[in-house]
Amino acid sequence: MRTLVFAEHDNQHLKGETAKVVGAAQALNAPVDVLVAGYNLEAVVAEAKKLSYVERVLVADAAEYSAQLAENLALLVHSLSGEYSHVLAPATTTGKNFLPRVAALCDVPQLSDVIAIESSDTFVRPIYAGNAIATVQSSAIKHILTVRASAFDAIEHNGNADVVVIDSVFISENSSFISAELTESERPELTAASVVVSGGRGMQNGENFALLEGVADKLNGAIGASRAAVDAGFVPNDMQVGQTGKIIAPDLYIAVGISGAIQHLAGMKESKIIVAINKDEEAPIFQVADYGLVGDLFEILPELEKSL
Amino acid sequence: MKVLVPIKRVVDYNVKIKVNNEQTAVDLNNVKMSMNPFCEIAVEEAIRLKETGAVSEVVVVSIGSSEVVEQLRTALALGADRAIHINSFEQLDSLDVAKVLKYVVEKESPDVVILGKQAIDSDNNQTGQMLGALTGMSQATFASKVFFQDGGLHVTREVDGGLQTLALKLPAIVTTDLRLNEPRYATLPNIMKAKRKPLESLDIADVGVTPHSSLTVIKVSPPTQRKAGIKVDNVAELIDKLKNEAKVIA
């Protein structure tokens, strides 16, 4: 049997999660196909073709798929699912949104947020906000998984997969797209950045996040925030790193004015190197930080920016 | 208009959970249990829709042993009108839960079903979407804003990178994200009143679902702990360590 990987993209570029989910799929020792579903997909398909290990890129290119509504994506993936023993999607808001519908249509359970694949039927996933790790065996006829991309290494980009056009179009009668307000940013995306600089309640207000931007600019990093900073209204929720926000694993994570609630740690503790800057030397963030610097962030951040 | 809100009894948000010694499950003995926080947000949203006058009845449903009646009573005290308890002693997976809820949807014909986006124990984030597939209903997950418009529902969703707004035809399914609302607390008079609100009990066998999960948890382990590193004295030392020891910056 084969493995189908659902590609994450924005109709213009393939997102980094896709290569990581293909990386995860390698552990299943089966041929991998990637499904690209969206609208005006030439550029995305060109990028997907290059993914190593991938045999075929299935392309469902239609206006009906441009907003990636769960209802029609689910029908599309269900219609293709017959020849696949495993269907994987990144555990992004897109994957989480439609894949359970596919599982229900196939009458099999789904495993969410898989962080390790032990064998073709045994998977590892966090439960209780990452405070426990469950190893789960499935006897289902088909395995449907959302994959936490940050837990896997990306596959290389030196392949040349065949392109297969999928003609059937599924239309969602019951839901329609009205509008999107996407945060415009010159910075790398939080989930893809190799450096992330995050601020917490210690930043005191939203304007002070400019101090983080100075440091992030020097490191080509993304900006994140703790839930406390989001709840206090400093920054929007799509910047939140934590169990209820984005779960990331950059090479370097710099936590500034963040105490280190479990909720936050769940979102960043797999980072390769963690730096904590906090004036409270008892803050729990120092218990997970590789390098801790105790002091006033309003003095440290400008100095850091200047020294980088 | 009628709103159905499925709710789940879970370990209280504030409890620090432990894996049992056998490493087979999380130890739930003598642990405080509560309504799942995302379900609280779902109940609150349903009550707010009723308060606008657009909704006439809010029905809550929960699946589990007789203990879940406690959470159903809480929802009634918050303002739900009626409760349904589906008695089951089995551990159900999300697909089985969705199948039970499909039965309730067919029986109650709600215009809107509002669920929490996920339960904080199993962290699955599946039930609402699966119910959507089984019933053919439209869905909007991760809702941060919900209102009736043009005979349907407009829902703003929190997605990676920003917000997306969808129009749904009724009946529709909504799953709640954190920022949809801040749930109220039940007042004592309302807690007393809730004891007299109708609560119907059914057995899971009566709804035609035989739980048969094909998932077996073979091990539950505590997460690997990160070790604390070192404290540096100043910015210069930090940069030196990042460059020459950790080698994460050039």
Structure in a nutshell:
The complex is a heterodimer of chains A (308) and B (250). Chain A is of the alpha/beta class and 308 residues long. Chain A is 25% helix and 29% strand.
What does this entry look like structurally?
Chain A is of the alpha/beta class and 308 residues long. Chain A has two domains: 2-165, HUPs (Rossmann fold); 195-307, Rossmann fold. Helix content of chain A is 25%, strand content 29%. Chain A contains eight helices and 16 strands. Chain A has helices spanning 16-25, 42-49, 70-80, 93-106, 209-219, 227-231, 262-268, 297-307; strands at 2-6, 32-38, 54-61, 84-90, 110-114, 116-119, 122-127, 132-138, 143-147, 162-165, 175-182, 195-199, 222-225, 252-256, 273-278, 291-294. In chain A, the strands form three sheets. Chain A has a seven-stranded parallel sheet with strand order 5-9-4-1-2-3-10, sandwiched between helices. Chain A has a five-stranded parallel sheet with strand order 13-12-14-15-16. In chain A, strands 6-7-8 form a three-stranded antiparallel sheet, with no helix packed on it. In chain A, helix 3 packs across helix 4 (93-106) and helix 5 runs parallel beside helix 8 (297-307). The longest helix of chain A has 14 residues, at 93-106. Chain A is globular, with a radius of gyration of 20 Å. Chain B is of the alpha/beta class and 250 residues long. Chain B has a single domain, classed as Rossmann fold. In chain B, the strands form two sheets. Chain B has a nine-stranded mixed sheet, with helices on both faces. In chain B, strand 4 (57-64), helix 2 (69-78) and strand 5 (82-87) form a beta-alpha-beta unit. In chain B, helix 2 crosses helix 5 and helix 3 packs across helix 4. The longest helix of chain B is centred in the first third of the chain and has 15 residues, at 37-51. Chain B starts with a strand and ends in a 5-residue tail after the last helix. Classes of the chains: A alpha/beta (308), B alpha/beta (250). The interface between A and B is large, with 86 and 77 residues. Strand 11 of chain A pairs antiparallel with strand 9 of chain B, so a sheet runs across the interface.
